[in-house]
Design brief:
A hairpin with a 2-residue loop joins β10 and β11. Strands 4-5-6-7-8-12-11-10-9 form a nine-stranded antiparallel sheet, sandwiched between helices. Strands 1-2-3 form a three-stranded mixed sheet, with no helix packed on it. It is globular, with a radius of gyration of 21 Å. About 35% of the residues are buried. With about 375 residues, the chain is an alpha+beta fold. α5 crosses α7. The longest helix is centred in the middle third of the chain and has 27 residues. The protein is built from twelve helices and twelve strands.
C-alpha cells in the first residue's frame, strides 16, 4: 500500500463497483444530494440498507451554511461555464483515473479539518482552483483541472492549506453544478412517473411531532455515546424522518421506524452517524458511522490478507454483541465483503460478519486495522 493510496474518488473515499457508481451518479442527476450515505460509506451491505430508508436530505441553514451557499450560487459566469463543461464531458472515472495522485494520510487529516472550516465556518480559499484547457498551461506546483486529459492534477509534495481549500471549493462547486442540472432534469421528467414516486413517498412517510422528535433526538445521542463513546452536540446537523416501509409490498413491518442522521457539516465527506430506530422490538435496528475522518487512517486489504485477521475480528465482534445486546454464542457466523457487484475481487478496510441467532441475525461492520466495530444492522435486538 503506497502513501498515496487513501482518497480514491472526488465524491467518495472508497472505490465502488461500476454498476453502483453509475447508479449513484444517476441518482445525483435526478436530484439526490451527495450527502446521501451511499457516497460516503464503505460498508456496501449496510449502505444499501440505509439507502432504503433515506430520503433527500435537508440541512440546517446556519450562518456559515448560508455563506457557503452564497459562494457556490454566485460564482462568476465564466467559472460556472467551466463546471458545466466538465459535467457535460465527465466520464465519472474513480480513483487514479480521475486524479493524478490520491491524498497522503497527513493531507487527509488536514482535509477533514478544513472541510469543516469551509462548510461550517465559512473559511474559503484566497483564489479558486484554475481550469486549464491544455497540459502545457500547467505550471509546477499547481493544483488544477485540465480539460485535455480530464484529470485533476495534484502536484507532488505536501499540499498547502490554500491548495486543499481550493480542492474543497472545487468539489463544492461541482456538486452544486450537478444539483442545478438535476433540477432541470427533474423538471422535464415524465409527470406520471413523478406522481407515482410522490404517491409512494406519501404512503410511507410518517409525520414526527416536535415532542417525539425531541425524544428520538436525545435517544439517538445516547446510542451514539453508548456504542461509540463519542458525543454529538447542537452544532451538528440532525435530521429525523419517519417511514412505514411496510406500506410498500416489498417490505415487512420490521422495516417501520425512524431514521436519524447526524452530520458534522454539509461537506459531502463529513463525519456522520446514521441510525434506524425500529417502531417495535422485533424491528430492524441500524447504527452506522462514516465520513472521510472515520476511514482516513484505515489500511486496506485483499481478501487473502484479510483472512489472516478473521479470528481476531470474530472475537471482537462476539464480545461487542455480548456486551451491547447480551447475546451469547451465535448458531453460525458468515463473513465476507471483498467482492464487487460483478464478483470481481476488491480491497477493503472492513470485513463483514453475519451472526445468526435463531430467527434473528446481526450484520456487523468491523474495521480491520483498527480492530473495532463500526456499524450494525440487526433484527430483534432492540429488546
Amino acid at each position: 500500500m503506497t502513501e498515496h493510496d487513501i482518497d480514491k474518488s472526488i465524491v467518495s473515499n472508497i472505490e465502488i463497483p461500476d454498476e453502483m457508481r453509475d447508479s449513484l451518479i444517476n441518482d445525483v442527476k435526478k436530484g439526490k444530494r451527495t450527502s446521501d450515505i451511499r457516497f460516503r460509506y464503505s460498508n456496501v451491505i449496510m449502505a444499501l440498507c440505509m439507502a432504503i430508508i433515506s430520503f433527500a436530505s435537508g440541512v440546517t441553514a446556519n450562518a456559515a451554511f448560508v455563506s457557503y451557499r452564497n459562494r457556490v450560487e454566485n460564482m462568476p459566469q465564466e467559472e460556472q461555464a467551466d463546471y458545466n463543461d466538465k459535467l457535460a464531458n465527465d466520464t465519472y472515472d474513480v480513483g487514479d483515473e480521475s486524479m493524478t495522485r490520491s491524498f497522503t494520510k497527513t493531507e487527509v487529516e488536514r482535509l477533514v479539518k478544513l472541510e469543516v472550516d469551509y462548510y461550517k465556518n465559512g473559511v474559503f480559499p484566497q483564489e479558486s482552483m484554475p481550469f486549464l484547457k491544455n497540459l502545457s498551461e500547467l505550471k509546477e506546483g499547481m493544483i488544477a483541472f485540465v480539460e485535455e486529459d480530464n484529470k485533476l492534477h495534484i502536484p507532488d509534495g505536501e499540499l498547502s492549506d490554500e491548495q486543499l481549500l481550493q480542492y474543497i471549493d472545487y468539489e463544492a462547486k461541482y456538486i452544486y453544478t450537478i444539483e442545478q442540472e438535476a433540477e432541470k432534469t427533474e423538471a422535464s421528467d415524465d409527470a406520471e412517473n413523478n406522481e407515482a414516486e410522490e404517491d409512494a413517498y406519501d404512503r410511507i412517510t410518517v409525520d414526527v411531532s416536535s415532542e417525539d422528535e425531541a425524544i428520538i433526538k436525545e435517544e439517538s445521542r445516547k446510542l451514539i455515546y453508548q456504542f461509540y463513546g463519542e458525543e454529538v452536540d447542537d452544532t451538528w446537523n440532525c435530521e429525523i424522518r419517519g417511514a412505514n416501509l411496510s406500506e410498500l409490498s416489498t417490505f415487512g413491518e420490521e422495516w417501520d421506524g425512524y431514521s436519524v442522521n447526524w452530520s458534522e457539516s454539509d461537506a459531502p465527506n463529513a463525519k456522520f452517524y446514521e441510525l434506524q430506530l425500529p417502531k417495535n422490538e422485533d424491528g430492524i435496528l441500524i447504527l452506522s458511522r462514516g465520513g472521510r475522518s472515520v476511514y482516513a487512517d484505515c489500511e486496506e486489504y485483499s481478501w487473502e490478507e484479510a483472512q489472516e485477521y478473521k479470528d481476531q475480528g470474530e472475537k471482537t465482534v462476539k464480545e461487542f454483541v455480548k456486551a451491547k445486546f447480551g447475546l451469547g454464542e451465535p448458531d453460525r457466523i458468515e463473513y465476507g465483503g471483498f467482492e464487487a457487484a460483478d464478483g470481481a475481487p476488491v480491497e477493503s478496510s472492513v470485513m463483514f460478519f453475519e451472526l445468526y441467532y435463531g430467527d434473528n441475525h446481526i450484520s456487523v461492520d468491523w474495521i480491520i486495522s483498527k480492530d473495532e466495530v463500526n456499524g450494525i444492522v440487526g433484527t430483534g435486538i432492540s429488546k
